[in-house]
Amino acid sequence: MNRDLVKHIFLNLFSLILIILLMSVVYKKFFYEKDIQRYSDIINTVRALPNDADIVYIGESSNVTAGGDDRDTRYISQFTGDYFPGLKVCDITKPASHAGIFKVLLENIPESNQMQTLVVTLNLRSFDAEWMYSDLETPLQKSIVLLKPGPPLWKRFLLSFKAYDIKSKQERYEQIKRQWLHDTFHDLPFDFPYRNTIQWDKALRKRGIKGKDGKRDKEATTLACYYVKTYAFQIDTLHHPRIKDFDDIVRLAKKRHWHLIFNLMAENTEKARELVGDKLLFFMNNNARLLEDYYSRKGVIVVNNLNAVEDAQFIDRTWTTEHYAEKGRKTIARNLALALKDLYPGQFKEVKDAHPAFQTHFENNCEKPLGWKGENTFTDEKSSSGMFSSKMGDSETFSITWSYPLREIPRRLKNHFFISFEACMEKVDKDIKLVVESADPECRYWKAYGFYPPPSAPHKWQFYSYRIKIPDQIKNSKRVKIYLYDPHGTPCYIDDLCIDIQ
Amino acid sequence: MLFNTIDFVLFLPVVIFLYFLTPQKYRWVLLLIASYYFYMSWKVEYIFLIVFSTLIDYFSGLKMEKLPDRKSRRPYLILSLVTNLGLLFAFKYYNFATGNLNLLFEEYGIAYRFPISRWLLPVGISFYTFQTLSYSIDVYYGRQKAEKHLGYFALYVSFFPQLVAGPIERFSRLTPQLKSAHHFSYENISKGLRLILYGLFIKMVIADNLSGIIDSVYAAPQNYNSADILKAIIFYSFQIYSDFYGYSLIAIGSALMMGIKLMDNFRTPYLAKNIAEFWQRWHISLSTWFRDYLYYPLGGNRVAITRWMLNIMIVFVVSGIWHGANWTFIIWGGLYGIVYLLEKLTNRYLPVKPDAKAFSPTHLFFAFKTFLFVSLIWIFFRSQSFAQAMDIFHYLFTNIHTHKTHLSIPVSTWIFLSIFILSDILLYDKRFDTWLDRFPYLFRWTVYAIMLFAIVVFAGVENFPFIYFQF
Question: Does residue B1 lie within any of the structural domains?
Fold first, then answer.
């Protein structure tokens, strides 16, 4: 190589470094935060944590999912907080997530945060092949790329060049099948004819589950097979990637001096026994015990709820989830509270019924999930108060939705709804309505109310209030909903929805 | 391993570094290992298909060369054709064929149903089977000497830059380059990097950002007004162009860095004045393949006019089938055939001839007309079913007065699309790497900086694989 060429190459390298440095500054200043809100808004749940939180509960949908007939739709973490009125119990909830995601979120809690105790959802099902290699893994992994440590431009580069676990649906399915096939059962204390999950599933499908009439019950058979595919595995603490994630959380907690509790969630063991039998229960209990022993040895308090919730409290009837009705959530919360009692003996206060018999005042300022329906419409594009509002438009025709069993409220206390909210439309659309609906099949009702005064100008927040007489026919409804309906999908933002029943 | 992933960003420099470190004699080993590794990164098992196809064609070639005439060579050509087209049928067309037969059985009350295959379509199977077929056919006709070196032949079939989506290279062009000694050339590295940069820019910034917009319209056209649907149709023309052109440029650039020159696959096709010219500018390696191995053997245009018309239709319909196992692709190919014939037949009656000077009003008028036809025909290519294509046409013409508009197009998408269109006009009949040479250093580096920034900061983050990978 001649000298000129070497000089030229060095000049080019210098130019490249200069460009990268410039890009880095520009990106960090003007684009990074926007990208975080666009691709990793999951971080907002961490940012929303108050600095003086005492206990932080991190979990997936099991924390927040409520049953349709629940009188109190609050979260497990909130129920737990009832036992410690003097402490601030906060939550970080990301549906479908797991320890790998929790780990990244927890690393983002600022060092200045004063939290003392961390409760992590330990979900047995998150160790199974279907969850490990679920379709949701790709978007989940994508959502944490920008949250990992490193220079912002580098992280954006990794995001652009798909440097995360990215696979098609078909590839994920192949991964699941491979694991079911290759993870052979071992060291079982009983004779077992099947070598792996696939064989067990196949045999069960062939044999079928008999209904009361002695015939093959198709639905029960499908569900039984589902139970086998979900729970028939044996955790290998040396190699399982999920164990590695939980181990990292243990390390992080030690580094940050947090008390650490793993809250092992309840599974529907009652149904598992009924459909498949004790052998499957052996797998479930054995895995739970193994996790409990493994993490207890590492100094973690493990609350084993595996068998704590009865079948009737499981909301989803046709597949396996950790979604519990009110009583189920309260049971988990109580078990957790009893474990926390050892850490905060002076703060614990026994709760008989941790929530009022009914509520008559509801408000949602769209700033954080409260368990209302339609919270997926939250956006930071516009807001009347705080940072977020609920957006209709695009494919969303409904706003956040208040939903409550009106029959729980004494008759004399439910004559009128007083409803207020702020609305801002991108285009004046007089067809957007406020809707009162009863979804109870025994008292169906649907009525829409226009905006009064009619919306006058686009891009302007306007306050609306309504006094609506509650029709007698819905007073005993199991589920009354109030929401805004946008039939044309005109972009419209709703904020500070407030409902009083008087 | 997609070109726009971190895996390839790491893989390519390592291969190139090792390539120049390895003595020429052993470079084929390095490139073959790299190519097989590249292919296996999709699905390990499918390497057996490529090896199988390679071995059959290698031995067929050797056998054919030893035989004196075409008649005696024919069984080996048939072996090669049956093997390659058989693989293609089994993986690509089986479900389509049996699905249609099952429908027919249902119609006529026949109880039998063909089972459905759940095999994944091996990436790039249509490309490498066509590449290796061209070799067998050339050896059969005596236009090409059979390759004695199995390693070089295997490398010809699997050379990683063009393995999964072309350009479909001929043996006589690629193999001598693979065999000859290439020294490290700063110019090749620089030009290769330029092509890769531009390719990544148009794939990641243009195609990937348009993709989400188009997908939402095609998923529910009833929710969009005519203007939105029209935007989606036009955008798709640019998406597929920037996606495939981007891929081709990265392939050409990657090979060029090793001193290997692959053929150009695109030459500003949307400035073509008619469909015939469009196909001389679009996916050139496939068009010339069909010309040489299907159109000419059918008689080309040295036949009666009706036979010639039939030949044209056959070529376009087969080209449609090559793209995918779906009626929409067959219709897509057929429509090209019809428009091509109509243009040829009506050309003489036109008051203005399309062979005008570049960028004259006549040229622009005919280019616009061709672009419009092509964009409308793309609807069939993009749609997953005939019904979906019909829906797009239906709502394009009936949702005129609705106020529904859900299409939100970021300003950055408009800006980068405009830059792409402008650059395509500037690059008319030129290639980005050489075009840039004429400008001063500062200008060149400003262009690199803009593209680099756009690639890192504005790239679509959803996983949109290259469209042509599915073929």
Answer: no
Min distance B457 CA to chain A CA atoms (Å):
6
- State chain A's mean pLDDT as an integer: 88
Last residue of one domain, picked from the residues B152, B181, B210: B181
Claim to verify: residue B245 and residue B129 sit in the same structural domain? no
Each residue of B15-30: pLDDT tens digit? 999 999 999 999 999 9
Complex confidence, ipTM: 0.87
Q: Please give the distance of CA B148 from its chain centroid, rounded to a whole number.
A: 30
B209 to chain A, closest Cα gap in Å:
12
Number of separate domains in chain B: 2
pLDDT value, residue A380: 84
Residues A436 and A215: their CA atoms lie apart, in Å, by: 45
Radius of gyration of chain A (CA): 26
CB-CB neighbours of B384 under 10 Å: 12
Tokens of B245: 């052109």
Structure tokens given for B315:
């070529």
Average pLDDT over residues B281-287: 94
B297 vs B102: CA distance, rounded Å = 34
pLDDT digits (tens, 9 = 90+) for B425-447: 998 888 898 898 889 999 999 99
Q: What is the DSSP string of A323-371?
A: -B-HHHHHHHHHHHHHHHHTT-TTT----SS-S-S---EEEE-SSS--S
Instruction: For residue range A92-111, list pLDDT tens digits in order.
Output: 998 888 999 999 999 999 98
Q: How far apart are CA B470 and CA B121, in angstroms?
A: 7
Q: Which tokens sit at A219? A: 């639905």
The angle at the Cα of A366, spanning A362 to A369, to the nearest 5 degrees, equals 85
Q: Determine the residue of chain A that is closest to B224 in CA distance.
A: A394
User: A388 to each of A75, A320, A496, how far by Cα in Å?
Assistant: 21, 33, 10
Residue B49: CB partners within 8 Å, gap ≥ 6? B87, B91, B122, B125
CA distances from A120 to A85, A262, A263, A386 (A): 21, 5, 6, 28
* DSSP assignment letter at B267: S
- B81: containing domain: 6-181
CATH node for A361-501:
2.60.120.260
B452 touches chain A (CB under 8 A): yes
B94 in contact with chain A, both atoms CB, cutoff 8 A: no
Element (H, E) at B420: helix B411-426
In three-state secondary structure terms, A459 is: coil
> Does A161 contact chain B (CB < 8 Å)?
yes
Residue in chain A nearest B441 by alpha carbon? A12
- The C-alpha atoms of residue A267 and residue A226 are separated, in whole angstroms, by 13
Chain A, chain B: beta-carbon pairs less than 8 Å apart: 66
Contacts of B112 (CB under 8 A, 6+ apart): B105
Question: Which CATH homologous superfamily contains domain A43-128+214-341?
Answer: SGNH hydrolase (3.40.50.1110)
Residue to mutate among B45, B184, B408, B456, with most A CBs inside 10 A, is: B456
Q: Do A395 and B406 touch (CB under 8 A)?
A: yes
